[in-house]
Please model this.
Amino acid sequence: NAGVTQTPKFRVLKTGQSMTLLCAQDMNHEYMYWYRQDPGMGLRLIHYSVGEGTTAKGEVPDGYNVSRLKKQNFLLGLESAAPSQTSVYFCASSYDGQTYEQYFGPGTRLTVT
Amino acid sequence: KQEVTQIPAALSVPEGENLVLNCSFTDSAIYNLQWFRQDPGKGLTSLLLIQSSQREQTSGRLNASLDKSSGRSTLYIAASQPGDSATYLCAVYGNNRLAFGKGNQVVVIP
Model:
């Protein structure tokens, strides 16, 4: 039981490049989330999903897209990376949003130059 | 919009002292409150989850209380140890999302 895993762990991009971050969970959770963590700003929700095939915008969705084609995977895409997207990205999952705790992955450290 | 505040931002205590960390939130319409621990460069580890109908939760040396009406939660760590040094994050769940405070950075001095 691996919990929540994230790929890759580190990445450096140049401005304008694109990439996809992969989150996978093996706990059969319905809900999945993408957050970013920045110094002085705390963790902020980018997008979330309440089940396979669904996605919704969070607090800071601009510049990101997501997909949840399989229940266990939640992908975060950056179509045209900007230096403002330099951050640590965390994925999380839970059975539901109200009763059960959220479990977090180890994070992806992304630098955009 | 839910605002979560954690005070103080940083604190140091000698080993053996009890730690008291405070969290306040502006909107009392929450489903639950979760306390996390984060070590430098690492992910978040869930410590305690308190449902909105509960007043407190305990796990080992950790005890968290919740007063939803006043918008406050307190995390107590008994007999602190150097291994408790970390950042502690409070988060409240409502409207399909967790809203996080910025954390209490704790250093336990041997």
Q: What stands out?
A: The CA atoms of residues 41 and 87 of chain A lie 11 Å apart. The mean pLDDT of chain A is 95. The radius of gyration of chain A is 13 Å. Chain A has no helices and eleven strands.
